[in-house]
């Protein structure tokens, strides 16, 4: 996330900058006609398509700004592009036995139904419920995508392998499903090992940097949106600025003689902001260095370290060149970074994986980075409360629970700046973090506080979810009577919410109330429709009673 020069498109500066293109930017997405056609054919013709490439090469942009709109134009049924981010609007303690990545993906594919109807649903059941049919009742293609699977492939996070197995199993069996996943090339082998377990016809499509002609087409098309103040040589100047020299076939040295799309967009913003229209050349290094200062300071602030920590590590990357720089597990100030911090710098397109370590992503960054090292530190503007919530959610999804907890606590300490809803979500997130580490007493307290905050907004459904999470925490702490009291209070607030009813039924079953659990779960089947978790728990109750 970049708050400064964030790429919001304006008539005078149509370059998106550091962020990916979205569907609303379709009219600004140039230079990928051939790749769009090839990937469109692959996605339509295969049950599983893997789009892979280096960080910043434009995978997300191609998917969102070209492929999805093209399929929509053809009348295809396309789900919203899925990304994974845990959402405290549905506390994890309500359905703790469901894989949280599954819940996050289903929520992304159907945001309208979240958090009332989609939680508790398996990927396979969700896809079956959304599968379109033709006039004869036969399956029509359903297009679905999961972007940025490297979130899952980095490290061995709990539940991520089970989630990928669930996703690939659904791709193997769901009628008409056409699944596309994106990943970075350095994680491709790990993804292949998972795919090999399934009988899936799959296609791998690589995405490479823009060739100079395509980049020139993109530059001319984008600058035309900005108006006539840019001379005829502006597009060529921009392409030259973002062009990488051919590294003689060394894949670790950066884009192979092509134009780096991420740097191209950043430099395009610099051209529009700083480059006079009639000049034959424009100053790149000074504004690019200022941009990099902001990036590094934001990364440092996100990871709660002084800016000189990533400064010094980046200096080593620049000096080391093609030899790479390793990333030890422990961070020493001014010398090394944690892997999470290094990943953030990779996500910001400053470095890329090379050999056993990291190398500079593009040679154009070398001089601006060296200038950055000599600049005095600058204070960053404070994060907004919503930004802190976003940082905490992403850290939680990545498995960096300590970082998520600290961002959440700092946000809550900011006092009245937070809206009641934001405070409620932050407090619920603290409950999720406490529940995940087994501190059920603390989790119950956080969920109770979140319920009070939701109550002040008149959000009865959110109150009920917090009460169920509190009751499940009381169960974990061994407080059965308190748990049953909380479940009774929550049950009185449930109105056609199958996910919440499922959570109540599960909690009653774990509390030894088999008959009541069966009654609640039967009601889920009669009402709005059973979730996958409801069916599983109901079968468990019935089997246990049968044995009795």
| Shape call | globular
When the domains are counted, the total is: 5
Per the CATH scheme, the topology name of the largest domain is Rossmann fold
Compressed to H and E, one letter per element, the order equals HEHEHHEHHEHEHHHHHHEEHHHHHHHHHH
Q: How does the helix and strand content classify structurally?
A: alpha/beta
CATH superfamily of the largest domain: P-loop containing nucleotide triphosphate hydrolases
Question: Which architecture of the largest domain does the CATH hierarchy give at level 2?
Answer: 3-Layer(aba) Sandwich
- The chain-level mean pLDDT equals 85
Distance between the termini: 55 Å
Strand content: 5-15%
Task: Please give the number of β-strands.
Answer: 7
What would a concise description of this structure say?
The protein is α/β, with parallel strands linked by helices. The chain has helices at 33-45, 59-73, 100-109, 123-130, 150-153, 160-173, 188-195, 212-226, 234-242, 261-274, 285-302, 308-320, 339-347, 366-373, 385-398, 401-412, 420-436, 440-456, 460-476, 480-491, 498-510, 514-526, 532-547; strands spanning 48-53, 77-78, 142-146, 177-184, 202-206, 351-354, 357-360. Helix 15 runs antiparallel to helix 16, helix 19 (460-476) runs antiparallel to helix 20 and helix 21 (498-510) packs parallel to helix 23 (532-547).
